[in-house]
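U., I forgot to send this yesterday:
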Amino acid sequence: MLIIVDELSKEPRDLSGRVELGLGDGECRDGLVINKPVAYKFEVLKKDSGVRVRGNVKAGVEVSCSRCTKRVSIALARQFTVFFVAADALEGAFEAELGEDDLDIAHYDGGSIDGLQLLGEQIILGLPMKALCEEDCKGLCGMCGIDLNRIDCDCEPGADPLWAPLKALRDQLES
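Result:
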């Protein structure tokens, strides 16, 4: 889905629909899988300095739990506003400190904006930092790797051997 900048007028244009979206080979970094067609709604407005895309995206995604690696389904909904400027307009721009409003600026090249790439970016940005299968997920045992949500293991938490010299020093100082 390409948004051709030269075909846009100064009036807002609404784009909406559903699209099958695959990231890379169907799986993205950290095992992200998009299960259902992605629903989107954009309002595209051409301005003198660029193109503003305001919209929302809804998708069903599947990720791995950050603690136990179990697969977790998430219903994702995200609203966003991105301002696109032409890549050649950035040439010769001076270096400056970015403000918070500047973080939603992107550039386009070749006279068009890739709407599928925009959707993919917004889905990734909408993911939780640490996805959990359950709020009280116990995770995996650090010693044997067993899923502590299903079975309690008999491992005793051992001291990390890297701390052994400090433990010896502490014991020496205490005696």
